[in-house]
Structure formats: C-alpha cells, structure tokens
Amino acid sequence: MGTVVEDSVGPKCYGGTYTVTLIPGDGIGQETAAAVKSVFGAAKVPVEFEQFDLSGFTPENDKLMQEALASLRRNKVGLKGILYTPIRLGHSSFNVAMRKELDIYASVAHCKNIPGINARHKDVDFVIIRENTEGEYSGLEHQSFPGVVESLKIITRPKTERIARYAFDYALRHGRKRVTIVHKANIMKLADGLFLNTCRAVAKEYPTIQHNDMIVDNTAMQLVSKPQQFDVMVMPNLYGSIVSNIGAGLIGGPGIVPGANYGREFAIFEPGSRHVAKDIQGRNTANPSSLILSSVMML
Fold first, then answer.
1. How many C-beta atoms lie closer than 10 Å to residue 120's C-beta?
2. Residues 99-132 pLDDT 10s
3. Is residue 151 within 8 Å of residue 136, measured between CB atoms?
C-alpha cells in the first residue's frame, strides 16, 4: 500500500499506518478475520483495522450498519466477510446495500488452482468480473395480484459500458488475452441484448484483446468440462453469483477464492464466492485463505 498516493479519494494514512474498515461478517467471519489480523500482526503490515461486528441477523435500520457505512466513506477501503441475508422474509441484503450505497460496481473474483489443493481440473486461471449494482439484484419486486409476483431486471447502457470497460481494462493491465461476455440474449432479448451489444461496442476500443460471447447455460457446461478456455469473463449480477460458485467448486471450494469490489472512490475486499458457512461456525475447520488472499489483493 506504500505505492498508493493519498488524495481526496484515496485510502486514509496517518503516521505511515493505513486505516481499513473491517466487517468480519456472519458465520465463520470472526474466525477468518482473526486469522487475517494474526497474519498482519506477524508480518507487521502497516494497517490498523476499524472493526464493526455488523450482522445480517440484526434489523434493517440497525445503527451499526450506518456506522459501518460512515467508516467506509471515511477510510475508502474495507475488508469484509459475508453478511447473512434472510430468505424470503426479513430485510434486504446488507451486502447488496453496501455496494449500491457506495456505488461499488465491479466485483472481481479470481479462480485459480492453488498448489497442494486437490481439484477437479488443473491449469485453471480465470477472472470473473460481475456488475454489482443492477440486474436481478435491483430489488424491485411487487405483487401485482395475489399469487402473481413481478420482479424487475434492470440493465442500463451506462452501467454496462463501465463494467465492460473495466473488464477490458483489467485484461489489458494484467496481460490477459481474451474477454468472454456472458449473457442470455437469446431469451431476454432486450435486457441481455443491451448488455451484449454494449459490451461488443466497448470491445472495439480494445483491438489487442480478443473477445467472444457465450450464453450463460452453455457457460456453466463449458466451465465444468473445459475451464482452461476462460481468461476474463464479464457478466451481469446474477450470472456472476452463479459462475463464481461454479468456479469455486472447480478449484477446491469457496475457502480459497479471493475477491474484491471496486468503485470510483471506494473498495471492499471480500471472499470471491460469497458464503456465510454458518454450518461450520465455531468448529475451527473453516479455511481462512479466501479472506487472507482478499486482504493481499487489498495491499
């Protein structure tokens, strides 16, 4: 982090130490966050954590949520576990709310084989870039008639342009050769058609980067049969959630997939495959690597 130049939108540094907002999250979050703090302490990393034990089990108007957001706005950088989201009833996702509130629009998850960990495939190394703020996660649902629910999927050209440009910029900066656009434009001709056509238009600005497109269900099959064909992948929100979980399964599980979420002013680093893992909480069996690797991405 010493190479980062502090400015009005940069990370906060006082006396050579950077302040980072830490939200351990639910389930195994406290255990994996403790592992990160132990590693940072041993390595004498110049980071001081401002910790908020926020939980998805708390009410929607919980004061701690607002304090955590204020800390993120102040520090610009956060390290976060996964917060529980109630199924069917209860408040909307705190995870999604943070990304929308801070306009952290680009989710990046790196799926790569790690030496020593048995996996279904070898030589896997691809990056999933997911639009974080719209799509099916827009949260616009209503019951138009008893027993009839309408859920709106929002795709806009400006937000698609910026995630597409982020994906191609990422490929250029990291020496990647190809960007695959994942969509379902054969069925959702307007929404995913807009996403696909906008990404194709942006691709023309990057003549040195190859690009192709793939329907999302075929993508799932190709991932489990020949994942080595993928390099950088860009896609709307829901597809990114599904593909990142497939990617985790390919290389050994969610405990080894790091991730990050970037916006113009703020960045939150969290596991790339978003699981609370409440079923193994407190057993001392959780793999902290995903959060540790995410903290390395932060540095």
1. 11
2. 888 999 999 999 999 999 989 899 999 999 999 9
3. yes
Rounded CA gap, 230 and 110, in Å? Answer: 12
Cβ-count burial of 193 within 10 angstroms (0-12 exposed, 13-18 middle, 19+ buried)? middle
Q: What is the pLDDT of residues 19-51, one digit of tens each?
A: 999 999 898 889 999 999 999 999 999 999 999
Residue written as token pair 């827009």: 138
Would you put residue 74 in left (φ > 0), alpha (ψ -120 to 50) or beta? alpha
Question: Which single residue is written with the structure tokens 């680009």?
Answer: 106
Greatest distance between any 2 Cα atoms in the chain: 60
Task: Return the pLDDT at 4.
Answer: 35
Q: How far is CA 42 from CA 38, 97, 130, 186, 216, in A?
A: 6, 34, 34, 53, 43
Q: What are the CB-based long-range contacts (under 8 Å, 24+) for 12-18?
A: 12/74, 12/75, 12/76, 16/46, 17/46, 17/47, 17/48, 18/46, 18/47, 18/48, 18/77
